[in-house]
Amino acid sequence: MVSARAARRATALLAAAAAVLVPRPAAALPTPKQVVLVAMPEAEARAFFAGRPAQLGLGVFPESRDPIRFVREIGYGAPHGGTISSGEEPVARLGDVLAGGGVSVGGYGGPSRVGRELSRAVQPSRPVSAPDAPTGILLVGWFDRAFVAEKLLAGSPSSVDIVVLGVGARTPLLVGICRSPCRGESSRVLTGGIARRPAIVTPYDVGVTLARLLGVSPPSERFIGKKLGSDPSPDALARVSSLERRLVRDASVGASAAATIVVLTIAMLIVSFLLLQAGRRDLAVRAAQASWSTSAIGSMVYAFVPSGRGEVRVIAVVAALVLGAAFPPRLSARTYRVFFGVAVATALLFAVAPMNPGGEPGISLWGNPLVSWRFFGFQNVQAALVASGVVVWGMLSGLGAGALVGVAIPTALVIAAPTIGANYVGVLTFSFGASLAALALRRRAVRLLHIVAAGVVACGAFLLALLADVGSPVSHGGRAAKRISEGGISAAWEFVWGRLRLNVHLVRGFFGGAILLAMMLIAAALLIRWSVRVGEGPVSARVAVWAGAAMGLTSLVLEDSGFYSGAPILCAAGVAWLMTAAVLKESPGVPPPPGGG
Predict the structure, then answer these.
(1) What is the DSSP string of 569-593?
(2) What angle do CA 255, 389, 334 make, to 5 degrees?
(3) How far apart are the C-alpha atoms of 555 and 597, rounded to whole Å?
(4) Which of 14, 64, 169, 425 is most buried as measured by Cβ atoms within 10 A of its Cβ?
(5) Residue 3: Cβ-neighbour burial (10 angstroms; 0-12, 13-18, 19+)
(6) Residue 187 belongs to what H/E stretch?
(7) Closest Cα to residue 369, out of 201, 482, 252?
(8) ω before 219 within 30° of 0 (cis)?
(9) Torsion from C-alpha of 10, 11, 15, 18, nearest 10 degrees
(10) Burial of 303 (0-12, 13-18, 19+ CB in 10 A)
(11) What burial class does residue 25 get, using C-beta atoms within 10 Å of its C-beta: 0-12 exposed, 13-18 middle, 19+ buried?
């Protein structure tokens, strides 16, 4: 793995590092801090740490699964957007900060591209004379575990911090930290990074941790990472390996989750409408129940199926569809309370899951280590289920205006809290729908003028969500808050316009997306028209359809991947309308009792 020439060079670097301590009387010089930054194949790194208890975690780059990108970002300090993909080479800032802090860097790139990139990440951007009395010494390179154990650890002149990156074909990569000789420690899991999630490490955390280990404090305005800490774990390597397997497994599912759920939900809604027009009331209600069950139950079962094969998970969605169709078509308040209870249980699941260290709501989060619902649109579906469940089914189950507000506040926290949902636009659309419903219930009438007041409440909730997430420089909320605070109204408008462009691009790339989008827009308009102008039916049903349709339309326009969030919400409003229409069709002129029964 390591050639004789490479071994001689690395040994010489270690000898040179030791010699740096000699030029002046030892009593007159502080002992420089020493760190070895090693990259090696992931299998080698696992074998290295198997017998050496250390601090372990998974390195994840939020914008890429390429390990080269991860290594490069260590030296950049903060995300560089499209600079890398455009072919331009940003100036590595970590090396300049280390040089300015008096750190002497000995970089051996080695035959591996990873080793060369790692060396470049910590080298100054321009030649710097090595200090006579460095405050720290950093040796970096690509080595195998035998060489690290036999040469670097055994030959180091004093205690040295060892930072190992176990690199494979993709991220996550293994990150380990120990102090030579890497014995006598307890097994620990890395924590405290900007991902706000145990065992997950970003390259920015690695960069800041390296600097701090070397006695250098990089400026926080340029380096967004945090110095990593650790928590005890009986078997850190097994825990990290288990989390990595989940990430790899769930990443293979891709966008099929949200696409399957949305398509089947809409399909059953269309079938229900056609059956109702044909006078087959009971079958129409069963199809409507199947549409609800596909979204509300199918997506949750889909999330927890322990398989990386999308077709296996699709079976769970189809089973949920069949289960919904098998429900007896009883249009009573009890049915709507079941629907509402499922939404509340889903919200509680999302709130409780992150309390387990390393846990996450439903499906694992690849590509974005933040505790968030942003996973190929699937998290949009989850947030939409909670939002529509409270607004639509809460209304039909008999909630009053005060009770709705009492339920909506904790629901908004689940959707927007940085450590639970982190869906800051989702809380805007949910607050808008909940406010419309509360105002309509209070006035016992649906009024278009309520849109203004609901919009004010929604904007306030949106700003609070941004402020709650502003401390995270790589989260969507934190970065949006920074852009808006710096750019004002123009930045806010660019934010909205960017979401519109993104959703248009998403719809174009989706099979039949333009047709589905047109159908949803038409359906939203018809549902709103019915809820505003209809002269029959209970107020609770009209409010449920009105607020749900308006919320779905807003979600479709404003949310990132809004197609996946707007569709389930509009479908919930459509199911509510179909069930109300089925009751009115059964007993013309006789409004159902309060609660939608």
Answers:
(1) HHHHHHHHHHHHHHHHHHSTT-PPP
(2) 130
(3) 29
(4) 425
(5) exposed
(6) none
(7) 201
(8) no
(9) 70
(10) buried
(11) exposed
Write down the pLDDT at residue 371. Answer: 45
pTM of this prediction? 0.76
> What is residue 57's DSSP assignment?
E
The answer on pLDDT for 27 being more than 80 is: no
Q: Which residues contact 449 (CB under 8 A, 6 or more apart)?
A: none
Measured CA angle at 436 (ends 431, 437), to 5 deg: 100
The least confident of 56-65, 486-495, 522-531 is 486-495
427 vs 425: CA distance, rounded Å: 5
Which single residue is written with the structure tokens 């080793």?
Answer: 115
pLDDT at 364 over 60: no
The residue that leads in pLDDT, 216 or 367, is 216
C-alpha 207/C-alpha 483 separation (Å) is 24
CA 572 to chain centre: 25
User: Chain-wide mean pLDDT for the chain?
Assistant: 78
DSSP 272-311: HHHHHHTT-HHHHHHHHHHHHHIIIIIHHHHHH---S-HH
Selection from 357, 392, 350 nearest residue 373 by Cα:
350
CA distances from 241 to 144, 194, 349, 446, 484 (A): 20, 21, 25, 54, 39
The residue assigned the tokens 């914008």 is 63
| Residue owning tokens 């050639």 | 3
* Residue with token string 């169709």: 325
Q: Which long-range contacts (CB under 8 A, 24 or more apart) does 493-497 make?
A: 496/558
Asked whether 122 and 105 are in contact (CB, 8 A), the reply is yes
The span from the CA of 366 to the CA of 360, in Å, is: 11
Alpha helices in 353-449, H assignment, sequence order: 378-388, 394-396, 401-416, 424-443
Q: Is the pLDDT of residue 239 over 60?
A: yes
CA–CA separation, 275 and 269 (whole Å): 10
Q: Can you give the pLDDT at residue 407? A: 94
Can you tell me the distance from the alpha carbon of 65 to that of 62, in angstroms, rounded to the nearest whole number? 8
Residues in contact with 232: Cβ distance below 8 Å, sequence separation at least 6, in sequence order: 186, 187, 188
CB 555 within 8 A of CB 569: yes
